[in-house]
Amino acid sequence: MGGYTPGNPFDALIVGYYEGERPLYAAKVRNGFVPLVRREVASQFKGLEIETCPFVNLPEKKRTQWALTKEKLKNCVWLKPELVAQIEFTESTPDGHLRHSKFVALREDKEARDVVRQSSPS
Predict the structure, then answer these.
(1) Are β-strands 102-107 and 84-88 bridged in parallel, bridged antiparallel, or unpaired?
(2) How distant, in Å, are the alpha carbons of 41, 73, 100, 111 from that of 6?
(3) With contact defined as beta carbons under 8 Å apart, do 55 and 2 qualify?
(4) Whole-angstrom Cα distance, residue 26 to residue 116?
(5) pTM score > 0.85 for this model?
(6) What is the largest CA-CA distance in the chain?
(7) Is the CB of residue 92 less than 8 Å from the CB of residue 120?
(8) What is the per-residue burial (b if ≥16 Cβ within 10 Å, else e) of 71-105?
(9) Start-to-end C-alpha separation, the chain
(10) For residue 13, how many C-alpha atoms fall within 13 Å in the half-sphere facing its CB?
(11) Residues contacting 31, CB < 8 A, separation 6+
(12) pLDDT 10s digit of each residue in the chain, 122 long?
């Protein structure tokens, strides 16, 4: 996880994966949260905020209404990519973005650098 969009306490998580040493953006995840889980996840952000985006492939050129363009990046809060979120998704696009993503849980048994791109579920 590399950031979030503000809300109460956040609107969406900004997640990615590693390709070698490079952290790459994969999705904004808004689904899968109930208020208690949202508060629990947000409590893990303390001490992780940073000034700049950790993903090397942002900002994006406008692909869709959901793209994280330079203008939309101004509203994001960036985090050191240390937290690992388990995300379910139906498929990934050729450029590595997740479609129909849903938050499942924070993972404490996995290091952030071990998160790599996975193929779409079968």
Answers:
(1) antiparallel
(2) 13, 11, 20, 25
(3) yes
(4) 10
(5) yes
(6) 38
(7) yes
(8) ebbeebebbebebbbebebeebeeeebbeebebee
(9) 24
(10) 29
(11) 101, 102, 103
(12) 999 999 999 999 999 999 999 999 999 999 999 999 999 999 999 999 999 999 999 988 876 777 888 888 999 999 999 999 999 999 988 877 888 999 999 999 888 888 877 765 55
**Tokens of residue 29, six digits:** 């995840």
Euclidean distance between CA atoms 112 and 15, whole angstroms = 11
